[in-house]
TrEMBL record:
InterPro entries in the record: AA-permease/SLC12A_dom, Amino_acid_permease_CS
Subcellular location: Cell membrane
Transmembrane parts of this sequence: 35-54, 60-79, 99-121, 141-162, 174-195, 215-239, 260-280, 286-312, 373-399, 420-438, 444-463
Protein name (Swiss-Prot/TrEMBL): Amino acid permease
Domain Amino acid permease/ SLC12A: start-end pairs: 33-466
Superkingdom: Bacteria
Comp. bias (Basic and acidic residues): 1-12
Keywords: Amino-acid transport, Cell membrane, Membrane, Transmembrane, Transmembrane helix, Transport
A Pfam family matched in the record: AA_permease
Membrane topology: Multi-pass membrane protein
PANTHER family: GABA PERMEASE (PTHR43495), L-ASPARAGINE PERMEASE (PTHR43495:SF1)
Family: Belongs to the amino acid-polyamine-organocation (APC) superfamily. Amino acid transporter (AAT) (TC 2.A.3.1) family.
Length: 487
């Protein structure tokens, strides 16, 4: 029996009508899912964080993005395998609960919620910084407050409006990066603009070599690089509201390699060939700086608008996902029942409202430390986001073992290279966490992680003592054992 037959037998997510088995409206179409997947890989980590990473590693940052991008593809294929087995909006939290145990599902759900709250704070902080490019007199906290309220309003209306906003946000980012690449190629090959006399691909190795800060400098940028890729897994959360998840999700996941090659590697190669890596500074978008150096101030303003929309896009996604994650926890008895209620339009407005209120902490952070706000929260967002990746890979390894033993149906979208690709990705994530402990700027996240972990353990036992059935293993509708052999 295949996973498709399982869904048909048990009235799975692709049953009749326009409502998923979880009560959500299937309002996200193919073009929206595709652009959400593309936009998830293009955010503040690239547009703003890359400035700091370039100053630390120079041109070798391109290699760091290439290796990390390969790991991200392995993670996404592992997620895709699980999604085609059982597409649900709880996604990694639900898979952790099923394959690793109720405790791990509980921790994953709340940690991913925290990740998006912290990321939302990060993104509105970045957006507020971008506004100061045009008008420094506007306090950073005022912009952060305005953006938070605006995006919350968008998420109150409908999932279709969310999808449309993400579609156009992503379209702006994609168009801008493609335009920048074409302009950069023109500067390099035709020599026009103020940078035309010095622009050359040789800048990738002529200014101190490809590794001007040594291999160590390159390795120390990996936590910034991994932060840039956070949110690619968001496509998994859309499973409960995609009109045809079995068709759209694999297509979106399979675009990961060329998205990384074009939007990250391609863009960085062009930028670092137009302007020497020594020009870039932390806290300044390399895209804005590159256009300013070329002598196109209008172009720099346009790019600043684009990176502003990138930050708003990510925050918008955060509000979308946090409401769904809180509802998933509530439906499993691991969160307040208050969050189970859907609006008449099928929206988890209660969870979204509480999450948006938590994101308002970003307004206070921007008020207290306007110059350091981005750095304070980015490291913790990285460690909490990587937890979801660890759970995805671990759940996929357990799921595949059960498939090989004939206990579960094979997914229609199997991850290649099992088990070595997943094991390699887990080892790489572990290596990045070690590097974060060495990096003084990133170490703060490792101080916070044990505190959060302790809170999760204590709350788990408190809830379990009140209602032991909440964390009892729940059997999902499953097929009879199959005769599937091993890979």
């Amino acid at each position: 029996m295949t996973s498709v037959q399982v869904d048909e037998k048990h009235g799975g997510p692709e049953g009749p009508g326009n409502t998923s088995e979880e009560g959500y409206q299937r309002g996200l179409g193919n073009r929206q899912i595709q652009m959400i997947a593309i936009g998830g890989a293009i955010g503040t980590g690239l547009f703003l964080g890359a400035g700091k990473a370039i100053s630390k590693a120079g041109p070798s940052l391109i290699l760091a993005y290439a290796v990390a991008g390969l790991v991200i593809f392995f993670i996404m294929r592992a997620l895709g395998e699980l999604l085609m087995y059982r597409p649900v909006s709880g996604s990694f939290s639900e898979y952790a609960r099923e394959f690793l145990g109720p405790f791990w599902g509980y921790v994953t759900g709340w940690t991913y919620w925290l990740f998006w709250v912290v990321t939302g704070i990060t993104e509105v902080t970045a957006a507020a910084e971008y506004v100061q490019y045009w008008e420094e007199s506007i306090p950073q906290w005022v912009s952060a407050l305005g953006f938070t309220v605006l995006l919350f309003g968008i998420n109150l209306i409908s999932v279709k409006l969310f999808g449309e906003m993400e579609f156009w946000f992503s379209m702006i980012k994609v168009t801008a990066i493609l335009g920048m690449i074409l302009i950069g190629l023109g500067v390099i090959t035709l020599g026009f603009s103020d940078a035309g006399d010095t622009a050359s691909f040789s800048l990738l190795w002529s200014e101190g070599g490809f590794f001007p800060k040594g291999i160590g400098g390159t390795l120390m940028t990996l936590q910034i690089v991994m932060f840039a890729f956070l949110a690619v897994e968001l496509v998994g959360v859309t499973a409960g509201e995609a009109t045809n998840p079995r068709e759209t999700l694999p297509k979106a996941i399979n675009t990961v390699p060329w998205r990384i090659a074009l939007f990250y590697l391609g863009a960085l190669i062009i930028i670092l060939s137009v302007v020497s890596w020594t020009v870039f500074e932390p806290g300044v978008s390399p895209f804005v700086a590159a256009f300013a150096k070329i002598g196109l101030p209008a172009g720099a303003g346009i790019v600043n608008f684009v990176v502003l929309t990138a930050a708003l896009s990510s925050c918008n996604s955060g509000m979308y996902s946090t409401g769904r994650m809180l509802r998933d926890l509530a439906l499993n008895g691991q969160g307040p029942r208050f969050f189970t209620v859907l609006s008449p339009k099928g929206l988890p407005l209660r969870g979204t409202t509480v999450s948006a209120a938590c994101m308002l902490a970003g307004v206070w952070i921007n008020y207290q430390w306007p110059g350091e706000a981005f750095n304070y929260v980015v490291s913790f967002a990285t460690i909490s986001g990587m937890w979801a990746w660890i759970m995805i890979l671990s759940a996929q390894l357990v799921y595949r073992r059960k498939v090989n033993r004939g206990l579960l149906p094979r997914s229609d979208f199997q991850a290649p290279g099992y088990p070595w690709t997943s094991v390699f990705a887990l080892a790489f994530i572990g290596f990045v966490i070690v590097l974060m402990g060495i990096d003084e700027d990133a170490r703060v996240s490792l101080y916070c992680a044990p505190i959060w972990g302790a809170a999760m353990v204590v709350s788990y036992f408190v809830i379990k003592s009140r209602d032991p059935e909440v964390f009892a293993r729940k059997d999902h509708p499953a097929p009879a054992p199959t005769t599937a052999g091993k890979d």
